[in-house]
């Protein structure tokens, strides 16, 4: 199925204008959030490269956004380990049976593919773009990622450069992006779609990309000058679309999300106003002005010419320094500023323990940050795991499969199933490990009971699982232990029989 032909369709430009009216309330809110945090993170559509952005009077907003961004990146995309794991589907595992050698061989092969995918993601600047995506999510609540199937890499669209719609359960049904590209930078196929005599090489033209859900596939095409660009029509499987729309706070019935900054916009507005007042009052107070009695006998010219230590004729009461008697009001304002800063610092995790600035951060540090984020940001992981992490893994797997970098592996129960090992998964494992550690410390108070009543083998298996390891590969099963005990007894009996046989001879 191709894109609808001219005269029988709504152009991508018209669809964008229609969806733009629904999006406006979200862009307006995003602009307000950016003004109080990082203004250049979400520029207005009218802004250009020469636009100067006013820095807020307070820096809590910018520091908080940057802090949350770095902690989200650490928790979701650890620098020293993959954030996902490939495992065999249930049907494949059932076909392999219980042969441990075969399962271990598959596990080693999947581990190699995991490293290949991780290296591929790092080499295509995934971390740089996703870092910017986290910033956009915290400030605006929405961002769109695009992974070109052929070129590779990742491209980011801010909220004011795309529109979308979702169905009742949150699946994306339509996406329309808008980009302004100079005529000289357009491919020849796009240039031929532009009609008119006033064509200038440096003039920018709006290029629209329309992606829509058609059954179990996504169809996409590009448009310029109300004409479809030949050769841009593409079809993607439903679970392998290169477009990944993200939102931070999911609201039922809404196509767009809400931001974290939006939840604290009242405090940020109040802090901005108070910080501005304190700064202006401090500037006025620092401007020293002297009042001179009009009937004074003291000569001002002699005072101005006097050097330190000189004696000048005059009276002290003839000259006074102008003072602003606002000390009490300023103290109240300062106390209010400190109170708001304390609340915002707690909300943005500025007062929490900061992880080490090191390339190799421990798993426990990652779990600690994850627990902090879960307590503060709420259900951030359930959203980002479903809409960011899993789609990223599947998209990169499809890209690498297409280029032959990894073998073609079916996904799902009949093939390979990617699972996320960070976020909620890491948080759950961290809680389990903490509970196990507490139990062991209490159980060791009674050494005899610990040796006789506690299932030590089961505890080792649970510890391995909590650390993200395959327990069967590092912990012996009960059957293996019994077999080894029987073999040891047989060997002992054999050693005892050998001397007896030699004596009989």
Structure, explained:
Strand 7 (217-224) and strand 8 (227-228) form a beta hairpin. This protein has 3 domains: 12-263 and 361-424, no CATH class; 265-347; 445-504, no CATH class. It is 50% helix and 14% strand. Helix 2 (60-76) crosses helix 5 and helix 11 crosses helix 13. The N and C termini lie far apart (91 Å). Strands 4, 5, 6, 7, 8 and 9 form a 6-stranded antiparallel beta sheet that branches. Strands 3-2-10 form a 3-stranded antiparallel beta sheet. A two-stranded antiparallel ribbon has the order 1-13. It has helices at 12-35, 60-76, 90-96, 100-123, 126-140, 188-191, 260-263, 265-286, 300-305, 327-347, 363-377, 380-403, 424-443, 447-452, 456-466, 471-474, 478-504; strands at residues 84-88, 142-146, 155-157, 162-166, 172-182, 204-214, 217-224, 227-228, 234-237, 243-247, 290-292, 319-321, 416-420. The chain is flat and about 135 Å long. The chain has 505 residues and is of the alpha+beta class.
């Amino acid at each position: 199925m191709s894109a609808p032909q001219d005269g029988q369709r709504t152009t991508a430009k018209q669809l964008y204008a229609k969806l733009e009216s629904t999006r406006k309330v979200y862009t307006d809110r995003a602009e307000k959030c950016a003004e109080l945090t990082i203004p250049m993170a979400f520029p207005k559509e009218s802004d250009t490269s020469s636009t100067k952005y006013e820095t807020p009077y307070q820096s809590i907003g910018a520091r908080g956004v940057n802090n949350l961004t770095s902690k989200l990146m650490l928790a979701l995309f650890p620098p020293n380990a993959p954030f996902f794991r490939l495992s065999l589907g249930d049907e494949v595992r059932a076909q392999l049976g219980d042969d441990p050698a075969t399962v271990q061989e598959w596990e080693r092969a999947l581990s190699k593919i995991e490293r290949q995918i991780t290296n591929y993601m790092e080499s295509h600047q995934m971390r740089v773009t996703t870092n910017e995506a986290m910033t956009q999510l915290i400030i605006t609540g929405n961002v769109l990622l695009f992974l070109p199937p052929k070129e590779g890499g990742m491209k980011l669209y801010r909220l004011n450069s795309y529109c979308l719609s979702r169905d009742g359960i949150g699946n994306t049904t339509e996406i329309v992006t808008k980009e302004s590209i100079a005529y000289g930078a357009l491919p020849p196929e796009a240039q031929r779609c532009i009609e008119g005599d006033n064509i200038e090489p440096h003039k920018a033209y709006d290029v629209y990309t329309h992606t829509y859900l058609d059954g179990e596939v996504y169809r996409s095409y590009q448009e310029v000058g109300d004409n479809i660009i030949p050769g841009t029509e593409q079809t993607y499987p439903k679970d392998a679309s290169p477009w990944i729309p993200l939102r931070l706070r999911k609201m039922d019935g809404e196509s767009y999300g809400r931001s974290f900054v939006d939840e604290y916009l009242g405090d940020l507005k109040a802090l901005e106003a108070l910080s501005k007042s304190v700064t202006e009052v401090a500037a006025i107070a620092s401007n020293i002005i002297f009042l001179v009695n009009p009937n004074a006998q003291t000569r001002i010219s002699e005072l101005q010419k006097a050097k330190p230590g000189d004696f000048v004729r005059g009276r002290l009461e003839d000259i006074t320094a102008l003072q602003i008697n606002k000390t009490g009001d300023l103290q109240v304002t300062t106390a209010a500023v400190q109170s708001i800063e304390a609340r915002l610092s707690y909300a943005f995790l500025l007062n929490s323990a900061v992880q080490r600035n090191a390339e190799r951060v421990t798993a426990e540090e990652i779990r600690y940050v994850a627990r902090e984020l879960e307590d503060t940001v709420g259900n951030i992981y359930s959203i980002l795991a479903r809409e960011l992490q899993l789609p990223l893994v599947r998209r990169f797997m499809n890209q690498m499969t297409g280029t032959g970098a990894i073998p073609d592996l079916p996904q799902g129960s009949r093939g390979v199933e990617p699972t996320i090992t960070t976020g909620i998964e890491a948080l759950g494992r961290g809680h389990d490990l903490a509970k196990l550690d507490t139990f062991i410390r209490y159980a060791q108070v009674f050494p005899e009971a610990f040796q006789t009543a506690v299932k030590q083998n089961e505890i080792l298996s649970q510890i391995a699982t909590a650390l993200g390891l395959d327990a069967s590969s590092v912990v012996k099963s009960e059957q293996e232990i019994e077999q080894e005990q029987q073999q040891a007894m047989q060997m002992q009996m054999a050693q005892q029989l050998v001397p007896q046989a030699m004596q009989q001879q």
